Amino acid sequence: MINNIPDIKNLDSKNFFLLAGPCVVESEKSVFEIAEQIIKITDKLKIPFVFKASYKKANRSRLDSFSGIGDIKALKILGKVKEELKIPVVTDIHSEIEAALAAAYVDILQIPAFLCRQTELLVAA
User: Model-level pTM greater than 0.70?
Assistant: First the structure.
């Protein structure tokens, strides 16, 4: 399955693959800085890398906690990372309606463990 991920490098290294990035997109600048640093490390160590960031944090324990900069704005940043840095990108989704929206910008959709029993969500993804 990993061979089907576009733009993934270092597959011939037989290393584990790494999903890494910030918890949530907070700004374009910070996302690019983090992605570029991880690329330097994973290229040097020949580790296959998929950039991971949530475009929004839907599961917060406090209503006033930061949840994101806006869905479309954050997804566009993730799409820009994918296109400009030529790396695969994964983000998590929380509802059926988010599946098609997020899929337009990223390579992989992740379903949080808390939501893995929601059949409609799994089918939509």
Answer: yes
